[in-house]
Structures are given as C-alpha cells and as structure tokens.
Design brief:
The complex is a heterodimer of chains A (294) and B (243).
Chain A: E1 2-3, E2 6-7, H1 8-39, H2 46-64, H3 68-89, H4 99-121, E3 137-139, E4 144-146, H5 147-169, H6 171-181, H7 183-188, H8 193-215, H9 225-240, H10 245-265, H11 273-284
Antiparallel strand pairs in A: 1-2, 3-4
Chain B: E1 13-24, E2 27-38, E3 42-47, H1 53-61, E4 66-73, E5 76-77, H2 83-87, E6 91-94, H3 106-111, H4 123-129, H5 131-135, H6 146-158, E7 164-168, H7 176-191, E8 195-199, H8 203-206, E9 212-217, E10 220-226, H9 230-241
Classes of the chains: A mainly alpha (294), B alpha/beta (243).
Amino acid sequence: MEIFGVPHQALLGQLLLGLVNGSFYAMLSLGLAVIFGLLNIINFAHGAMYMMGAYAAWMLLEYFQIGYWWSLLLAPLSVGAFGILIERVLMKWIYRLDHLYGLLLTFGLSLILEGIYRDQFGVSGQPYQVPELLRGATDLGFMRLPNYRAWVVLVSLIVCLGTWYVIERTRLGANLRAGTENPQLVQAFGVNVPLMVTLTFAFGVGLAGLAGVLAAPLYQINPLMGSNLIITVFAVVVIGGMGSILGSIVTGIGLGLIEGLTKVFWSEASSTVVFVIMAIVLLVRPAGLFGREK
Amino acid sequence: MNSSINAGGSAGEFLRVTDLHAFYGESHILHGVDFEVRRGEVVTLLGRNGAGRTTTLKSIMGMVGRRTGSIMLNGNETIAMATHRIAHLGVGYCPEERGIFSSLSTEENLMLPPVVRSGGMSVAELYEMFPNLSERRTSQGTRLSGGEQQMLAVARILRTGAQLLLLDEISEGLAPVIVQALARMIQLLKQKGYTIIMVEQNFRFAAPLADRFYVMEHGRMVQGFAANELSSKMGMLHEYLGI
C-alpha cells in the first residue's frame, strides 16, 4: 500500500520516529514552560540537565550496577537535587533582573557542565542497553512497533498529562498558577513562595533528567546530546507560547510529527521545518499558538 | 502563637508600629511612622495619594524593598520576618488592585490563601454572605464584575482565620449600591470581632465605620483621633485632604 507514492511502512515508521522525538520535545519544553512561568528564567541549561539525566543512568549502571528501572526514579531525583542547589546558590540572586541575565547565567552553566562531562567521559559517547523487558518489537499487522519506542511515548504522555492535570486542576497547581501571575501577593497570603520556586525548578529539571534516562537507550549518551536537542526545544517553546503548559505539550508532539512527515516527503528540509514554522508563528501570533498577549 | 504571647504590649493591642521607615530601591517612602491598633478596632488611614498609606499596609506585610523600625504584631516582632510568615500570625491582606488571579476560577481564587489559624469562615458561610460568588464559582476570576471581584478579594481572606484585615481602597471605583453593601459587610465583620485597617479615599464611606482615624502626609502620621472627635477635626481634614 502506498500513500502519496510513499510505502505506508516508511510513512508510519517516520511518523513513529517523529512521535518519539515529539515526546522528548514535549517533556523538555514542558519543564521549560513550568520554570519560565514561575521563575521568569529561560533555562538554557535545560539541555545539560537532560544530558546529566542520561549520564546519571549510565553511571548508576557502570559504578553501582543499578539498572534502568531504578534509574528511571533515581536519575531524575539526582538531577532535581542538583537543580535545588543551582537555584539556591545561583538563581535566587537574579530574579529581580532582566530575563537576559537568567539566560546568560544558565547558558554559562550549561557550557561549564558540558565541559566537565567532556573532560570526564570524552566525546565519543557511551552506549546504554534497552532493558530486557522492553526489547524486541510488536507486530501490529500494518507495521512493526519497537517496544522501547512505544514505552517512551507512553511514559512521556503519562508524565505530560499528569503534570498538566496537577497544574490546571488541583489546589497545588492553583498555587503555582497564582504564583506565576503575582508571586508577591501569593506570599502575602502565607504561601512559602521561595520554597515553591525552588521545588518548581527542581521539578522542571527533574523532568529533563527523566527525558535523559528515557533517551539513554535510544541515542548515544554524550556530553553534547542536550545542546543538540535544546535549540529545537526552544523553537517548540516559542511556537507553543512561553510558559503555556498545554501549549508546550501539544506543540512538542505536533512538531515531532511534522518533522517526521517532512523526512518522508522532503528529507532535506526536515531539520529546518521547525524553524520555518517558528518564523511564521512569530509573524502571525507573536505570543505563540497558546500564549497570552501581555 | 496565640494571644497569650501578647504579654509585652498593652491589653488588647494587636498592632504597634514604631518609627517605621520603608524604601523601594533608593526611594525613601515612609519616614518614621508610629501608630497602634487595638483588638476589634476599625482604623482608617486617611491622606492624599502618595502620602504613604498603601506603603504602610505593604510594610506591615513585609512587601516593600526594605523596612526598618518595629512592627509588633500580636506580640511578635515582624520587622525581619518573611512575608509568608507574617500572614501566619493572622493577617489578611486585600490589595488596592484587588489581586484577583485571571488563571484561577472564582472558587480557586477563594480557596487560594491557606488557612492561617482556626476560626475562619467556612466556604458555605462565605457563599451565603456573597451569593453572587456562589453563582459564579466556576467563572474565571477576572470575568467577575468590579464589585464581585472586590467581594471575592475580601471573602478569600475571611476564610483563612486571619483576625487582622488590611483593606486597601476597597470602595474605589465601585457603584454606590456596591459601596453600601461593602459598608454593611464591614459593620458585620466588626460585630464578628475582626480588627480592620482600611485605607480609604472615600471619606463618606469610611467615616461612619471607623473607630479611629489616622492622617498621613509625606510618609508620616500627622494626626490620630477617635471617631467622636471627628466633627471637631473637620477643619483640619479639609486642610490635609481637601475634602
């Protein structure tokens, strides 16, 4: 069977790859959106946190023989704990300043982190095995679905929708939304806003750490894996609308799929298409598809 | 953390502000403010725009850049305390711009401030007192009318058990019928034993409600007098406020 002259297997295969990439975009841009919303900081170190998550999984296995499943929990926690340290030591000094300073600080931080990992582990990259339970593929009749990829998409969807639910539908989330609008007043009501800010940052970078663990068996673990991805993720954030939770999820997955489709029909353009869309969206809706004009 | 700690102050004193200076960055807004508020009192701060009344309320909450002097709240020195801890001493703050959150529904706005002590009004009681809010509980907070938003801004601090209410210009920009409803509400809160500090531009609204008045000018308290002295002070008020 062919669709527009393309064998349907190739099309579905690329769509699946797109969906997997989109899952990573969604998880990373979601973390960025949550952090930007409350901290007003564009976390350029997000890619480095993703890389640290992947390395944490690798190190847990290499040095402590702790496997994938525990890493899924421990790596995000360790990245989150590192996030707490950065927020308490560095970031809290720049909240009153312009966005630009946060961007510069986190950009510098990501260079330092990548440098340290490069120095320690080299640039050639480390392999990480797909856990036994998720090896192989399932024959769906019309295509073969690699189990691990399905797992990544599933976890990402659960995590993204869970985060959306907590933020939009619970009291904890109401505190967070209110804190995004007017942190001073929320604090005047008796909410410990500085603590909330720290934990939100930890959660956002923990999400990047989780994405890193999920990515470890799929891609080479190397110190630059984050910076390669983060540029696209920033484009996703801009298209979705800075700080929009739903926007980052929908746009992340949507753009992954569009990239996948572009690979089928015009593969040369596949790495550019996201940025073309970004330019168009910025011209038509400067606040992004789901963003609110200020 | 209850009234038994109050041993330091005179009986029934809830708030004592001494030599309070407040700064926003380089600008020095309050220049040594002194006043006190007793338990169960309604006190109104009068003064022209820019006299420092809103800054006085914000200073009590710790919401200014820097402050020096002393603010004793319920027997606790709060001058160096973080804002959220001050709220937990039983203070509810209603800002001039009302501070209704647009990303929260009416009910979420109502439920937002955490309970700081026992004895606050229940949601059911509040909906009975403000039936409009009950009808529109699922609406976006900022879709409410100005009057409803003001009701919501006050209602949400009544839920928390706060005993001292700081109300900044609650009658501002509202229709006379709403202002009358607010006046009845203040009377009711007074009967319930709340201690209230109001900043008011609307003298006719504030005059019948307050037990005592303070007049501010250039970041200082220039006059303080009780309600029964009001008629003899009108000349002075004309001079300070142009009313």
